[in-house]
Design brief:
The chain contains nine helices and twelve strands.
């Protein structure tokens, strides 16, 4: 992926449907020689569901609404994630340049770990097997091989999809807060796990770094891992034009409640 011309976008907060629409639009419109790193936030706490994760009979959406939590379904796989006190990243690149999806997954996580070490976190890549099939529960309840951990606890969660000729990988870097709310919103008994399965930068550093600090470190880490510079920029116009219809798709109940 080093031969691509990379642009990093520090994007303003958007709601769940808009965030997923932008990520998807970047993947649909990416040019053959371009790579994108989008770093972003959410205007409200949002539960995102994996593309094939059970939903309607599993999560209590009325309770989520009462708690002021939005719900959106991602175009990528995996399990539920509460997006709140975090940095969210999206890497978009042509599959022809990214190579094997598993290798790209590992490269992105290595870059995240490098960036988080710049902040002082003892961030490493977990060893072990890849994630299993989707089921109800929090993404941060369990760690899969290759994910970023600190002190043996999960610090980032990521998901990946191939969209047309592009790779989309996006995920969360936990700055503060708790993922326990995902389990509280589930109608099913919680999957056995330990309360300390995940961690945050606040826990690791003894302080909560600002979003801007984390974004800068992540961009530097990924740039170093990919062996290429990244130029700051804005979202490309083709993606912004495509984003509108995709946002409507991610806002639809038919997509969110799909089985």
């Amino acid at each position: 992926m080093a031969r691509l011309r990379w642009t990093v976008v520090f994007d303003p907060p958007r709601d769940g449907a808009a965030n997923m629409g932008v990520d998807h639009a970047l993947a649909e419109t990416v040019e053959p020689d371009a790579g994108w790193l989008r770093l972003y936030r959410w205007v409200r706490p949002t539960l995102s569901l994996g593309r094939n994760e059970p939903a309607a009979d599993v999560y209590d959406f009325a309770r989520a609404e009462g708690m002021g939590i939005d719900v959106v379904r991602r175009p990528t796989g995996g399990r539920g994630v509460l997006h709140d006190a975090e940095l969210t990243y999206a890497v978009v690149a042509p599959v022809a340049a990214a190579g094997r999806l598993r290798a790209a997954y590992a490269a992105v996580h290595a870059g995240l770990a490098t960036g988080l070490r710049l902040l002082g976190a003892d961030a490493r890549l977990a060893v072990g097997a890849a994630a299993g099939p989707p089921r109800a529960g929090a993404c941060f309840d369990a760690t899969a091989g290759g994910e970023v951990v600190a002190g043996g606890r999960k610090l980032t969660g990521s998901a990946q999809a191939r969209i047309g000729r592009a790779l989309l990988q996006h995920g969360s870097v936990l700055i503060d807060g708790s993922q326990n709310i995902v389990g509280e919103l589930s109608r099913q008994p919680a999957v056995a796990s330990t309360p300390s399965a995940s961690t945050t930068l606040r826990e690791q550093l003894g302080r909560a770094p600002s979003w801007e600090e984390v974004a800068t470190a992540v961009a530097e880490g990924l740039s170093a891992e990919l062996g290429t510079g990244m130029v700051g920029g804005e979202l490309p116009q083709p993606a912004m034009r495509r984003m509108g219809s995709l946002e409507r798709h991610y806002r639809s109940r038919e997509w969110t409640l799909r089985r």
